[in-house]
């Protein structure tokens, strides 16, 4: 009877293997400087042209820019570096900064590859790390954009594989940069609710809140002032050689941000895109 059961289990396992999608072969990482991770089947899709802006065009975030660039260069050169959490106001250049420092490292001839993983795909990060860890001649900047977790979300446990590495340890050639609107990667009302209903309030959310503590670098991005917003607009005008009177530019830029109900680097770029179109400047 035991032999029959074993045979049946083996047949079931073989059938499941046939149904499972076959992973794509690992790339040589020479096709592109950036890739996007897709599971089921596991594959790394090369990105020929990364949607980014130049580092010099990111204005008003100088401190964060200097710190993240230095950390990235250290890692790309094989030295010690920290995982980084970029958190704060929307539209202030968090994801743009990650892509810009990667481009700077590549421009200097360093073997740094950008790999983007979506939050919903974090459950497969262990398989991704195994692939990246085998490419010893490359350094990988693993990037997760707009990261946050809800009360019933267990994906944060997979993220610990990147930050802590578990028993096997995180591959030495992989670093993680994540962006989030939340400093602790979870909503404040969720933190307060769990604390108020728990027997031990201090321990109720410690596991999730401590997740952000595992990032060696915390870089905060805050809403910009009007002067900083106008400096961003002027920076774009200078970069694309768009000539317009200072008073006219200021009036139009202020009116634009008033209609949007706020100021940010994203709003500055959206205004400049409209301005460039009206003045016949190609972007």
In short:
The protein has eleven helices and seven strands. By secondary structure, the protein is an alpha/beta fold.
Task: Name the descriptors.
single chain; 283 residues; Rossmann fold; 2 domains; seven-stranded mixed β-sheet; 13% strand
Shape: elongated
CATH topology of the largest domain: Rossmann fold
Order of helices and strands: HEEHEHEHEHEHHHEHHH
Q: Oligomer, anyone? A: single chain
How many strands?
7
**Percentage of helical residues?**
40-55%
Number of helices: 11
**Major sheet attributes:** 7 strands, mixed
Give the class-level CATH name of the largest domain: Alpha Beta
Helix-strand category: alpha/beta
The CATH H-level homologous superfamily of the largest domain: P-loop containing nucleotide triphosphate hydrolases
Overall mean confidence score, pLDDT: 84
Task: Please tell me the CATH architecture of the largest domain by its name.
Answer: 3-Layer(aba) Sandwich
Question: Cα distance, first to last residue?
Answer: 73 Å
- Beta-strand proportion: 5-15%
Strand order of the largest sheet: 2-1-4-5-6-3-7
Radius of gyration: 23 Å
Count up the domains. Answer: 2
- Low-confidence residue ranges: 188-192, 194-200
3D architecture notes:
- The protein is 46% helix and 13% strand.
- It is of the alpha/beta class.
- The chain folds into two domains: 34-221, Rossmann fold, CATH 3.40.50; 226-278.
- A seven-stranded mixed β-sheet has the order 2-1-4-5-6-3-7.
- Helix 4 (125-134) links the parallel strand 4 and strand 5 (139-144).
- Helix 9 (226-239) crosses helix 10, helix 9 crosses helix 11 (265-278) and helix 10 crosses helix 11 (265-278).
- The radius of gyration is 23 Å and the shape is elongated.
- 30% of the residues are buried.
- Residues 188-192 and 194-200 have low confidence and may be disordered.
């Amino acid at each position: 009877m035991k032999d029959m059961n074993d045979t049946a289990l083996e047949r079931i396992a073989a059938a499941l293997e046939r149904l499972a999608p076959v992973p794509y072969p690992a790339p040589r990482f020479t096709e592109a400087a950036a890739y996007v991770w897709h599971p089921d089947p596991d594959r790394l899709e090369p990105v020929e042209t990364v949607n980014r802006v130049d580092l010099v065009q990111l204005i008003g975030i100088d401190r964060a820019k200097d710190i993240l660039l230095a950390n990235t260069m250290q890692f790309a050169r094989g030295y010690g570096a920290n995982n980084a959490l970029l958190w704060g106001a929307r539209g202030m250049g968090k994801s743009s900064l990650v892509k810009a420092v990667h481009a700077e490292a590549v421009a200097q001839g360093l073997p740094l590859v950008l790999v983007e993983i979506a939050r919903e795909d974090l459950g497969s990060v262990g398989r991704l790390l195994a692939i990246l860890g085998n490419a010893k001649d490359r350094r990988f900047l693993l990037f997760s954009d707009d990261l946050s977790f809800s009360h019933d979300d267990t994906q944060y446990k997979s993220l610990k594989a990147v930050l802590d590495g578990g028993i096997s340890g995180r591959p030495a050639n992989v670093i993680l940069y994540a962006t989030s609107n939340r400093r602790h990667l979870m909503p404040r009302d969720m933190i307060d609710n769990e604390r108020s209903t728990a027997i031990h309030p201090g321990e109720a959310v410690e596991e999730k809140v401590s997740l952000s503590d595992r990032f060696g670098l915390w870089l905060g991005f805050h809403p910009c002032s009007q002067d900083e917003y106008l400096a961003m607009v002027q920076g774009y005008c200078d970069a694309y050689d768009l000539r317009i009177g200072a008073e006219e530019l200021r009036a139009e830029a202020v009116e634009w941000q008033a209609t949007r109900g706020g100021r940010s680097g994203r709003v500055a770029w959206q205004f400049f895109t409209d301005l460039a179109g009206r003045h016949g400047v190609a972007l």
